[in-house]
Amino acid sequence: MEHSFTLVLFTVLSQLAIGGFITLFFLDALKGKLSPKTSQTAAVGVVVIGIVAVLASLFHLGHPFHAAKALLNFGHSWLSREVIFFAIFIVIAIIYLFVSKTEGGRKKIVAGLGTLFGILTVYSTAMIYTIPSMPAWNNGTTLLAFMLTACVLGPLFVQTISGFTKDTFIDCSRYTTTIIGALIVVNLLIISVAHGGSDEAVATGLAICTSPLFWIKAVLYVLAFLISGRSICNSNLKNTNIATILFVLMLVAEFLGRIVFYATGVHL
Amino acid sequence: MANQKYGFIISMERCIGCNACTISCKSYYNLNPSINRRFVREVEETLVGEAKRCHISTACNHCEEPGCAKACPTGAYTKLDNGIVKHNQDRCIGCKMCATACPYGVPQFDPVKKKMDKCSLCVELLEVGEETICMASCPMEAIQVVDLNETETIGLVDRVNGFVNPDITKSTTLFKLPDATHTVRRDL
Amino acid sequence: MGKFSRRDFLKGSAALGALVGVGTGVGSSFKKTKKVSAAGNTKQVFSACPRNCYDTCSIVTTVGDGTIKFITGNKNCTYTNGRLCVKGYTYPNYVYSPDRVKYPMKQEGRGTGKWTRITWDEAFEMIANKIFEIKKEYGSTLPIALNKYSGTFNTLSYGIEGTLSSIGYTTRAQGTPCWPAGIDSQTFDFGTIVNSDPEAMIHSKYILVWGANPAWNSVHSMNILQKAKENGAKVVVIDPILTDTAANADEYIEIKTSTDGALALGMAKYILDHNLHDMDWMRKNSVGYQEYLNYLNNNITLEWASEKTGIPVEVIERLAREYAAAKPACIWIGYGMQRHTNGGAAVRSIDALAAMSGNVGVLGGGANYAQLDSWLVNYSAMAMSPPEGSGGGADRMININNFPAQVLDLNSGDPNKIPIKMLWVAGRNPIAQDPETSVSYKAFDSIDFVVTADLWFNETVAQSDLVLPISSIFETWGVHASYWHYWLHINEPAIDPLYETKCDVEIAMGLSKKMNEMEPGSCTYPTDRTMEEWAAMEISQDFLNSKGMTSYKDLLKTGTAKVEGYDAAWADGVFRTPSGKYEFLSEKCASFGHHALPVYVEAKEVPTDRPIRLLTPHWKYGLHSQFQNLSWMQSVHNEPFVEIHPELAQKKGIADGDMVKVHNHIGFVELRAKHTLTVPKDAVVIYEAWYKDQKFNVNYLVEATPADMGSCATGQAGLAFHDQFVNIDKL
């Protein structure tokens, strides 16, 4: 595959940032459950991670200094749309830094807009790869997988931050367990869809199943699923330390999974 | 004015899979050694009748609905009225998305220019009434570039078993399939 | 440069093409082209490809600012129609490849790669000292051996032989690995090799391509075959391998390897039985036909031929009927089918088939093998006499086809044998191309001093003490002829020699100058000629007269001209045999230990412990060890492979793409298996080539088994390259 590690970095980090921001939208802007320190720190984290993601993506380009040209084909290109949506998302995240201390509608509107552009970004990223020339990618599993990455990493990220800011622990164990479970199902789905597809898709399916990284990811998923599931009914496990462990496990799993994604894509 | 619609017709009956087209094109355009604008592939031996060696030689297929143009974030690709899918290298930033999106994997990354590169259909030669380099170089005269609006296409096909489905991006390349060869094989 | 000059160039070449046959107009128009191009600081010159190839193409080279920009075929040559082959198109890459040998260099310890740049003067002095030392010790230059063959067929490259002749009597690798059995056959039958002009195949109604693969090795003839086919001719390919030539033919017949003679005799028998033979032609033009027909009557049946060849009786009957009924019908006898222990005999049987069916001497007919009649050159760079008082009496010939073993024998320490102390290699890569690679290494080890002149750091150069950088054909002059078509080309330098490269004749002149400085009178090679003068001397007066030319300068106007009169070889019925007739029965053949008649000779037996035949034909992206090493070629292919039939592969548990070991009692190679239905079920196919920086060399598996014929016309028997047997196992 032509795709370099920079794309792995960009997609996982951008999805982490977006997931984190959406978590802020729910927990902070809508429900006000986070301390200002936590929401501020998390928002700074989202912005920093977003910028790192953008910088990483530039290394993928032959001419990084002409990256601005990538905005030019918004009318047709999902990549242009992704770039624009994500740029808007980062700008909104920065604005959120300033409005997060305030109360009321303005904060909600900003957070809501950020959430919208975040979702549009993840959707655009997925659509870039949902193309007929890559049969194994050319179905809904790509979008599902990308969205779930954001869904699983966002809350864990904010929980981890809240640990650093000594904030009260917000229990998301049911949610997290459900999403990890969904990720396991989607991965099974990806493999079975690939095996039922064209020759190239079958080759992708085979490559995934024979990739050691995939199996490490699988072990991490199961481990995270068990820990998270156990924490639903075990209050001893409801703390930020466990959330941090889960965050690290899932972040590593998603990185490995994304490496496998790019490495096993078989072109027509 | 632009009533022509240029496109390739490949005679698989004549093609011997020698890659003279690939190399002469590479030479004329002084391409980086690692990249090519034409591709000669083996196709299944039982494509027509009894098993034999079969090849397909293609370049950019100058599609009606080019995947590269949709994928390119800079709008470097244009489908011209004359049928050519033009790549404007000045606009290209080398993101390689076109290579992924093209079902044929046509655009190639030039490691020195750090930009993508693909067949231009030798438009500057066509414009002055010359043949494209591949057409003029093919020792078997298997490659033709024609005005598809003015060309009889009976007996030609747009798809070859084992090659990418042309419907995805509406490839304009047409093929004359090889005739079957009668073969007498030894019983062992 | 850029688009501007390229466009001009194409206009130029179109103008050249349009002028074919216009005669006197050609010169002035070409000048006009040059003038137009001069505005863009661009010029065009005629080059010629010197490779060992049927097609020997005339080339138009476009040069801008002293650099080759593009090359294409010369449209003045109707054989190529202005098109080259894949190998030819790589020449700009070949010339400017960073891998070229750039300077004279000496190696500290063979195979170490520790090369040090030296000056030409130092190189010549090293060589001269070695020659003088040998002369002093042995009283002659016989311990100096030359191994040269077909790396370049520029006729000026015969200056390599001239170099050795000019220092005294030496030891020569004599013969040819390529085609000698077939040459002998045709020498016995016709008197020599003369094929009909391949462009005349267009007139044929039926073409049997027998053991040749022009799709890969003579692509311009392939186009002629295609056009003949489109004209209504039936093209039938007889070959153990379903080649790309076969794939483009009307019919392919898989013959059991090395049984071609049986098929030809079976067909002749059917033709005779059905009274389809040309008795009048035989009576008028041949001797021994009655004995031949008796042999067919008494010894040959179709059932026998079928059993030998693996081809059903009814197919042989149909083939014979079609061949005899189509007038004219042509047979192209390939070189592959004579690389056997019965290859010469097989070619004689095919010659006889063409002759008895009345297809010799007719337009669109013939038993076409090769020719050297168009080589109307003076070999002026070659013809050198030894210095006065040279010891040794005469050159000593050793067999090029068993060179390493013969060297080892001479160097075994036997005091009665004059050893080989110094080896000069030029125009050849023997370690890559000679059979029994392991023995080649040993032979090189037994020689004190090896000097190799080449363009590339190949395996042979690696086993040398001194390498001399050779200029490509684009950097020097040349005169080139083909052994198939009838065009004679001139080659003008397109650019100045790169780095410190020299052509073979310049090396001869430089060495001569040095030797005579050190010891006056020790070398006879002339030193006062320019390369242009050498080229001018090369073109024979006969050729100039036949084309109405006054000097080589006339040839420079078109780059090429055709030797006429060969549309139908032997049409005059004057054969060059002792009898002056076609000889079905050849006493000369008998005098070389063969049967006088074109009888069947049994194929080499398949050894029970190595039941799989190994075929090692030519590769489409290379010519022997040339071209496949170039980066352009690597961009389309860069991995050796073995072709294996899926049925054989299944028996051996070998999947498509598996790494396998092909091995026999003398060596092994490891490479990837490729399943294909186009090879026989009892053979595997590995194409011979030199891949840069890869260990692959198929000749580790090839024994120096002699073919049956070759010693009459070429001094040494040929090589049975295709009578090799192996085992194959999954790694």
Please provide a brief summary of the model.
The complex is a heterotrimer of chains A (268), B (188) and C (731). Chain B has 188 residues and is of the alpha+beta class.
Task: Please explain how this structure is put together.
The complex is a heterotrimer of chains A (268), B (188) and C (731). With 268 residues, chain A is mainly alpha-helical. Chain A has one domain: Up-down Bundle (Formate dehydrogenase/DMSO reductase fold), CATH 1.20.1630. Chain A has nine helices and no strands. The longest helix of chain A has 26 residues. With 188 residues, chain B is an alpha+beta fold. Chain B has a single domain, classed as Alpha-Beta Plaits (2-Layer Sandwich). Chain B contains five helices and ten strands. In chain B, strands 8-1-9 form a three-stranded mixed β-sheet. In chain B, strands 2-3 form a two-stranded antiparallel sheet. The longest helix of chain B has 9 residues. The radius of gyration of chain B is 17 Å and the shape is globular. Chain C has an eight-stranded mixed β-sheet, with helices on both faces. Chain C is globular, with a radius of gyration of 26 Å. The relative contact order of chain C is 0.16. The N terminus of chain C is likely disordered. The chains are: A mainly alpha (268), B alpha+beta (188), C alpha/beta (731). Chains B and C meet through α1 and β10 of B and α1, β3, α9, α10 and β10 of C.
